[in-house]
Design a protein that fits this description.
Blueprint (H helix, E strand, L loop, with lengths): L5 H14 L8 H8 L5 H18 L4 H26 L10 H7 L2 H4 L1
Helix pairs in contact: 1-3, 1-4, 3-4
């Protein structure tokens, strides 16, 4: 039986959502926070970068897979900016769930 570590599960989850047809990627960050609320916040950014990189390495960099990778990188960058904004505001940022309080101030991910 194959067992995956949590980081591998997160990356697999992100790859699946990024490659899904339609707009499934839009709720990916919210769903990562819901599924792994106790992870360090920047671990989710790393997950998104790892997923985007894996997509790039496994598929064409053009077309739907190229778009999926680009979405992953953009989500990672925007999530990292949220973390930085939380730092500037001296908000708690030890757990991924701490993003929820920031998204009450800046609801970009809450609405995406």
């Amino acid at each position: 039986m194959i067992t995956l570590r949590d980081d591998e599960l997160r990356v697999s989850f992100a790859i699946e959502r990024l490659l899904a047809p339609g707009a499934d990627w839009r709720g990916l960050v919210r769903d990562l926070v819901k599924r792994w609320p106790d992870e360090p916040p920047l671990e989710l950014s790393l997950t998104l970068v790892a997923a985007a990189s894996a997509i790039e390495q496994s598929f064409s960099s053009v077309g739907p897979s190229g778009q999926a990778a680009m979405h992953g990188y953009r989500l990672a960058a925007l999530l990292s900016v949220d973390f930085y904004a939380m730092q500037l505001l001296d908000m708690p940022r030890e757990r991924a769930a701490d993003f929820l309080a920031y998204w009450e101030i800046d609801p970009f991910f809450a609405r995406l």
